[in-house]
Every structure is written in C-alpha cells, then in structure tokens.
Amino acid sequence: MHTEAVEDALKAIFKLSGRCEPATTTALAEILGVTAPTVSTMLKRLQAHGLVNRDAQHAAELTAHGADHARSVVRRHRLLETFLVRVLDVPWDEVDAEAEVLEHAVSDQLLDRIDALLGHPVADPHGDPIPPAGGRHVEAWGDRLDGVPTGAAFRVDRIHDRDDAALRYLAELGVRPGTVVQVVERAPFGGPLWLRVGGQKRALGDALTTLVHGTVIDAHNAVVEDA
Fold first, then answer.
1. Domain 4-62 carries which CATH code?
2. What is the pLDDT of residues 47-57, one digit of tens each?
3. Domain 143-218 carries which CATH code?
C-alpha cells in the first residue's frame, strides 16, 4: 500500500487541508494529474486502509494515521527542496519537480544526515514549514498579500509554489520569504497592487498577490479601503 501514488495522494490531501481547502476528487485530480475516476479508486483504497475518511461532501480528510504518513512525506519533500537549493544551487522554481522524484527514494537515515547538514531548517525555500521528525507541526499560511491594507508593511513568509513561472518572476522582483514590502496603492477597476520592494515600486496582479502569504508588521499608517 505504501506506493508512490499513495504518498502523492496523502501529500496532496495534506496540502489542501493546510490551506483549508476541501480535498475533493476534482481538486486532487488536478494536483495529481490523473482522472477523477482514478482518484476515486485511490481514495477507496486509502479509506480501506484507515488513512482517510470522507466528509458529508465526500471530500477526503486524513485520519491520525494518514496524517502521520503525510507529514513524513512532506518532511522529506521540503528537506530535499532545501538541500537542492542550498547545496546544489538548484533554482527555487525547479526544486519541486526534482524533490517529487527523490522523496520516494531517500532513506530515513540519509534524510537525517541532510537535516543535520543543513542545520535543522524549519522552512524550505518557498517558506513552507518543515515538519519535525517528531512532535507538533502547524501548517500556517498567515495573511495573503491581496488582503493587506494600503500603506502597511508586510513581511513575506511563504509563497505558494504551484506556478514555476510565477516563482521566477517574483524572484526577479525581489519578492521572497523574509522580504519586507510596503503596499503602496491599489489601482482601480481590478488593476494591479503596487508595492515598494527594496526601494523600487513594483506592480503585481491578482495571479501573483494570491500566491504570497505573510505577516503585517506595521499597519500604523495603513489605509483600510471600503469593501
């Protein structure tokens, strides 16, 4: 039962749940790149093995047993991403695909060595928290950039890695985890959000601002706009 397909499915459910999004058959099929009937068959297998339950809307929810397995896979993936970026200098927009391959093959012993070599990092290059080998893990996303009031200073903590091209562009703009930006203004009629990044004014459309999450660190001068 412990196959690559199972690990990928558990990780997908974990990630959707962490974003408070229902792990529906359609959502999982899109993430996994398979058909909805394939997902339905997989979920039945996972449920039979006590790894998931289905809620009233038939969305998948991890059991305690399933969540343990999912955190293990996510830990492997995020540590490998961190290793690839820090040690092998792989661009942050390419590491997800590479880690997808390696996560199914790396042993626990090698993963522990990688963790020690990296100094036990708590987050991967995209800001995703790395689950510890044991103990509590919180999959927090914080505030989303498109909801930050005008004038506020905002620390980028985490960037959704679903779009490689978006990651490359954000990196070119200097928007990475740890960066502090200021929300300058919102263009009217669905226009871009203007930020000050490293002394320069940058425009981000909705497709980008919805990927960037973090913490408002100074809202003293922020102007809260009417809804």
1. 1.10.10.10
2. 999 999 998 77
3. 2.30.30.90
